[in-house]
């Protein structure tokens, strides 16, 4: 006797139960949608502001120093 195939909801419930038994928990995060023109524009504006900040040279020096760690 064959049983009916599981619905997507039933499969997801089984998967979540299995993951919980392994000691994991589900976490949902929201991130900016870079495909959105409004978000893309805001990110560009913030990037330009950051590049003009007085601390920018200090940060770039730090990044250059860190990058040099991998060089022989």
From TrEMBL:
<protein>
    <recommendedName>
        <fullName>Antitoxin MazE</fullName>
    </recommendedName>
</protein>
<dbReference type="Pfam" id="PF11455">
    <property type="entry name" value="MazE-like"/>
</dbReference>
<dbReference type="InterPro" id="IPR021558">
    <property type="entry name" value="MazE-like"/>
</dbReference>
<keyword id="KW-0614">Plasmid</keyword>
